[in-house]
Amino acid sequence: MSKIFVYAEVVEEGVVEPSLELIGRARELADKHGFSVSAMLVGFGVRKLADELIYRGASEVHVVDNEVLSKYNLLLYTRAIVEVVKNEKPEIFLFPATTTGRELAPRVAARLGTGITADCTAIEIGDYVDPITGKKYEKLLYQIRPTFGGTIMAAIVTPNHRPQMATVRPGVYSVPPRDTSRSGRIKEWTIDFSEEDVGCLEVLEVKRERRKVDLRSAKIIVSGGRGARPEGFKLIRELAELLGGEVGASRAAVDAGWISYDHQVGLTGQTVKPDIYIAVGISGAIQHVVGMKDSKIIIAINKDPEAPIFRISDYGLVGDLFIIIPKLIERLKVAKS
Amino acid sequence: MVTVNSKQNSSSGRLNIVVLVKPVPDPKEPPKFKPDGTLDRLSMKLVMNPYDKYAVEAALQLREALGGIVIGVSMAPPHAIDALREALAMGVDEFILLSDPRLAGSDTLATSYALSMVVKKLWSKLGKVDLVLCGVESSDSNTAHIGPEVAEWLGLPSISYVDKILEVSGGYVKVKKLIEGGYMVIRVKMPAVLTIAGTSYTPRIPTLRDVITARRKQIITWNVDDVSIDTSKVGLLGSPTRVIKMWAAEIKRRGKIFTDTDIDRLIDNFLAELRKDGVKLK
């Protein structure tokens, strides 16, 4: 049976949610179209996580467990994955579009000489007829993604090269339920890394903050960006409190030290879908937008009328946040009393 | 032709840096479509990919600190040349434009192959290339593929999402890389490919004089044959992926923008609109 591979990214001794989401989606596609689902685990001391992947929907787990892989190393991880792929010949290989997946997957693709689509928001299985040769292909991976800042959608296929590869945006599919009655095969691989230049790339330090604020269940989020400055965050907090919401932030505001990482929304922060998202002094860089674009209603406050955030907003207030927010707070307070 | 004296550059600690730059439709302008619904790329104003500006800035800062040369490289149609002058105005020493109709329709694997062939040619001309920098992704297609794929074609290590280059010494470069929830510090052997994520590098704004000087600098155009590209690996037919369908994304946003110098009136109008639409802030 043709195989769908899913990369099981491990962070701090656990498989990340975006990888579990992909196992869930792969399982759905596999059941409908007759594929099998295999997970790919790479690291040191990761063998123990294989059962979890089977409980989530994998029927097979390929494990490369080696001390040299104890810290994430792009070159060694690429080597391990490519070795397994060459032997197992999967039809499809999915990676989560995390910061790791987005650098590892294209490297693997290029080494295998195959195509890859980044940051898909949907994956389907379907047929394709090549308009040039007339050749018909069955059960290809439809790699569907937004492009041009989200204004255009594209469906992409990889007709002749294998595996068909894609990274998939976290949060578009849900984490599948855990079913401990499921069983599967675990295959451990021994890969010789002696030829590799292990010291070529070395991780010296990893700093990862644990999140204390969960923005994902918030109904209202008021977020600040580079334009907010520390004084702006005082206003943002006040507005959030008045509305009974949480405070969010862009990466720029977190990096500037105005607010802790717990509040960050976007690619390297949290993905949120509140009823109302108020973006204050946030220009709307794609790295932020991917984390909030599915909010029910988006309100933007920005002094630059050309800020890209206005293009994805329901309501846009063009002006100085330091004048707009105090007046807005005042009006809302009056309305309340 | 590249004017650099290779001997002078290969012996010292000076760095030969290649920056990959993509001309993109101005992200501030909405995309234009042809009557058949496809994108009208030719009528859209092109600018330098904003993320590549961070990479250019990082390269210029390295050159200023350690000496060396910064060469811009782009693969684009000839009309992109104005957007590339921006890089020269910022201070890039020379610029190579790889332009050839045979490259049209290349996907990321094909594009990265073509760009890697340009880097290889520069490498042999200069005697060495120490770093290849580019923006983490482009503002139009956002794939983030080109950096790691170029590295793969060149057989070099790569690091994506570099926030800051911390140190260059002893043939190694130490960088801070962004990850979910924090960062990694990674030491990597040069030559290496780094994709710059931004935040720490504020791109310099060229002065009028810089812009005028840049107009006098020549952008060297190479074609597929100049860099010995295997044409079976590029263009639409050389690309493993095919776009089978494109459609306008359904943006269900209301897009009601309020502009008024009288902020009280602006808020009035905004709140009235919310009431009309049945949206409750609380």
Explain the layout of strands and helices:
The complex is a heterodimer of chains A (337) and B (282).
Chain A: E1 3-8, E2 10-11, E3 14-15, H1 17-33, E4 36-43, H2 50-55, E5 60-65, H3 74-88, E6 92-96, H4 101-112, E7 116-120, E8 122-129, E9 136-147, E10 152-157, E11 164-168, E12 185-189, E13 201-208, E14 220-224, H5 229-243, E15 246-249, H6 251-255, E16 276-280, H7 286-289, E17 297-302, E18 315-318, H8 321-336
Chain B: H1 6-10, E1 15-20, E2 23-25, E3 46-48, H2 50-66, E4 68-75, H3 81-90, E5 94-98, H4 108-126, E6 131-135, H5 146-154, E7 158-169, E8 172-179, E9 182-189, E10 192-196, H6 208-216, E11 219-222, H7 235-238, E12 242-248, E13 256-259, H8 263-277
Notes on the structure:
- The complex is a heterodimer of chains A (337) and B (282).
- With 337 residues, chain A is of the alpha/beta class.
- Chain A has 8 helices and 18 strands.
- In chain A, helix 5 links the parallel strand 14 and strand 15.
- The model of chain A has no long low-confidence stretch (mean pLDDT 94).
- In chain B, a hairpin with a 2-residue loop joins strand 7 and strand 8.
- The radius of gyration of chain B is 22 Å and the shape is globular.
- Chain B contains 8 helices and 13 strands.
- Chain B folds into 2 domains: 233 residues, HUPs (Rossmann fold, 3-Layer(aba) Sandwich); 32 residues.
- Chain B has 282 residues and is of the alpha/beta class.
- In chain B, the strands form 2 sheets. A 9-stranded mixed beta sheet of chain B has the order 9-8-7-10-6-1-4-5-11, with helices on both faces.
- At the A-B interface, helix 4, strand 7, strand 9, strand 10 and strand 13 of A face helix 4, helix 5, strand 7, strand 8 and strand 9 of B.
- Strand 13 of chain A pairs antiparallel with strand 9 of chain B.
